[in-house]
Structures are given as C-alpha cells and as structure tokens.
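Title: Prediction job returns without error message
Component: structure pipeline
Severity: low
Priority: P3
Assignee: unassigned

Description:
Job completed but the reporter wants confirmation the result is attached to the right record. Sequence as submitted:
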Amino acid sequence: MHIALYTPFKPLGHQRPSGDLVIATGLFEYLRAKGHSVWQAGPLRARWIYWKPWEWVRLLRVYRQASRQLNRVGMDLWLTYHAYYKAPDVLGPWVSRAAQVPYVIFQGIYSTKRRRHPKTWPGFVLNRASLKAAEHIFCNRREDWHNLKRLTPTDCISYVKPGIYPEAFTFDATARRELRHVWGVGDAAVILSAAMFRSDVKTEGLEFLLRACGRMAKADKSFWLVIAGDGKERQRLERLALEQVPGQVRFVGKIKREMMAKFYSAGDLFVFPGIRESLGMVYLESQSCGLPVVAFDNGGIPEVVASNQTGFLTPLLQMEPFETAIQKLLQDKGLRRSMGERATAHVRQHHDLNRNYDKMEKQLREVVVKYQDV
C-alpha cells in the first residue's frame, strides 16, 4: 500500500525524544518493513495550532502540498498517529476526503472534559471532528477504547497492545560490567531511572524518586541511583540529589535509544513514578532487559507492567508504599531475579511490536478494500 503518515503532535525525527515519538517511529518502521511505501505527510506540528493564527497560512500551504502529493503518487490510505485536543489532526480529514482515500487514526483520544474550558474547547471540537471522520481508529490504551465508544461504533475501534522490538532490548552482560565500572558502583544494588528533565510531571516524578531514595539513605540502605536524561531542570535535580542522597546518585546524561539496552543491563531494578504517564515505553524496554519495575498505578502504566508479577505499582503520590516497594526489591535479590525473568517473558509474550501490529496491518488492508468497494 501507499500510505501517507501524519504525526500532528511531533514530526518524525524531532530532536526532543519522547514515548510518543518512539511509538510513531516504530509504526513508520514497521509499515516500511512490511513492504509498504510510507510518505510523511507534511512536517506541520499542530500542537496548540488553534491558538497560533500565524501558523494558519503555513497550514494552508501544507494542505495544498499534501493534496498534490496524494493525487500525484496515488495514495491508498491516510494514517494519522496520535490525535487529541492539544494537537488535533487539522489535515487528514480534509486532505483524505479531497483525495478520496480512507482516513484512519492510530492512537485517537477522546476526552469530553476538554470541552468545558475555553482554552481547550477549540481543540476538543477539531479533534472530535477528526475522530468522527475516521473510517477506523486504533488505540493502545483500554481507557481510550472505552472513551471512543461514546463517539464511534465499536466495530470501527480496535485495541492494539503497545509494543517494542524485544530483540533490540536484551540483557548485555559485557555492558553491565563495563558501565558499573565506569559508574563506580561496585557490587551494590543499582536503581535505574530515565526521563527528560522537563519542567512538568517528568521532573516531578524524579523529585519524588529522589526524596524516596533520601528516606532510604537516612535509614542506612546501601544502593546507587543512576539517572539517564537531560534538560533544563538538570541543575535543580542535581542539587536535590546532593541534598537528599549525597554520594549515591549518578547523572549519566541523555543516552541514545539504541544504547538504552546497555544502560538497562547495568541496573538491578527500574524505578520511575510516572505521574499521569500515558504509557511509558521505558517500562517495556527495561522489563525486556530483565528489570523489575516500580511505578505508580495510574495512566497507561498498568497496561505494560503486570502488578506484583513483573513489578510493583503503588498508589499515586503516596510515599510510603512507593518506598516500601523499592526496599523490597533492594533487599531481596531472588525476588529481583524472578520478577525480572517474568518481566522479560511478559514483554515477549504480550508486547512484541511485530506480533501486535500484524493484526493492525491486516485491518488497514481491510479498510482500504472496503473503501474501494463502496
């Protein structure tokens, strides 16, 4: 198939890494690997575009370019990744209609509470219009599937489990020895965490983790905390680490995704609270490498971490159960090993991207055939 892929929230190749970008890139690579011709339909970023009138002229220009491209190449399908109120799809419904090709959304999100606030009402209206225009919507969270049922017939919605390429995230014994030597952590248990240091819930989560580790350090618990990531909040986090856990924290900077398996291999457990985390690809990646997880029981995290099997999910923003879960894993090497083994198996059984997306690709083909028959 010839597929036009549009990512309104963040274009492919964007310099700021995120879970959304990882999923979009994985979708693009999967479709290309299956032999489809995939064209990125315009680099226009639609984040808050309805409050940016200076972008509307550019929107019109991208609309014309996309329409010409679809007509010239003869596209079979328009596929939009991640449409929601903050970054509604302002291209797909109209370009696909003009080109007479089916319009499909992967990770469509419908939240009626956004219509109650003047700031988000325009985004709610635009996003609802795109969702209603879609021939089919795929979502990778159960919550989104239930919300979409209020707007779209259930036979037009499909749940696709989030996935990664497990073969890209396997335990590396050599990397473990090398990195632990570089970090100077010896044989002590190592807690890993990873996030961008943005002034939002990512940094709030790391602050919560540092305070939990500070409480454990004061109780004479022996461990190291190693954090991957970077951003404008780094200095503030480093100051907090020095205050809360002096001499037991390593900041190792931003790590390329293709090197993250080595990073995970050097740790003993992965901990990131994940405040209102949509999914969190780091949980899949770390589990695939054999690490048990500790995180909050909220957002999309329960969709990728099997609570009490591959890790511990604790109540949102409650310090005591969060700290207890970390301590339990720090103190019990056998528990870490058994949970880590289950984590690896869990990812391979339930979250293999190829296996999960094969079903989606079959449905995409069916949508195209059905549309052409109408």
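Comment from assignee: result matches the submitted record. The mean pLDDT is 94.
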